[in-house]
Amino acid sequence: MTDQMVINNFFVCIGAQKAGTTWLARVVSRHPDLFMTPVKEVHYFDHIAGISQHLSDRRRRARRRKHYQRLLTQWHRWPELRGQGAWYRAYMANPIDDRWYASLFDRRQGCKFAGEATPEYALVGAEGFAHMKRLAPDMRVLYILRNPVERAWSQLLHHCRREGLRADQQDPDQLIARSRTASFAAHGDYVSVLAALDQVFKPEQLRIDFFEKIHADRGKALERICGFIGLDHDAAWFGETGRRFNPSDPAQMPPAIREHFRAENSGMVRELEARLGSLPEGWGTDFSLSAANARRKEKPSIKA
Predict the structure, then answer these.
(1) Inter-CA distances, 159 with 155, 166, 206, 254, Å
(2) 82, 128, 131, 241 — which has fewest CB within 10 A?
(3) In the predicted model, is pLDDT for residue 4 greater than 80?
(4) For residue 298, is pLDDT > 50?
């Protein structure tokens, strides 16, 4: 690795999937000293690990076409979108390797810090995290957890929408069957992800936060996330933070599915509580939290 391939002042959100990463990426991109990639999910580390094919030529061309469409239709964003042309040229280059990835953060539009948010990075394991750290030794990693029952249901709704299905018209057993894949399970296996992160990153490089706490007070959440990255904070930079991005179908979760996901995740939740010390009170609707957790007021959760 040469000095040219070291990515400095770098931040990555690795998920969890359906835990508000799109909202986070869109809102923090408004910070005047943070460059977030125009394509929210770069997918480099899951692509080279063979987990996904998000960086195929076909998919990258499709994302560039969307950029051109926005140029033609979103005139109010013309200066911003026109300034992304050089970034998209780097994104479309080949080969896809470490130098390619580092080049995506060379053009920071005058910002000191740069980052991206790809939930599939949670699946790359200790080997993948070590690869990240080789490229960005001082990087900061944010991992957002969400009530496993609600997260799994949101993921199921996402899968149904992608396949053109109405979740409320599917039999609960059929929906549960859709969740029985290795990828689906891995996205919700917080304990394994945390164990892999522990093998690679120093405590000060990692922050664990919760979807429920972030959206209970978005202003305070942005302040603590900015502090973690190393950014100054001014609430005026972020404007309206209540908009939802990439929302799931509003279908209600059937009781049978809720019970299934409760049973699937109860052991993991006990491990999480033992490790982190406390979990958001809202998780108590689905899991039996300790009496100490129930009495404890929620505080910013940092990796132990």
Answers:
(1) 6, 10, 29, 16
(2) 82
(3) no
(4) no
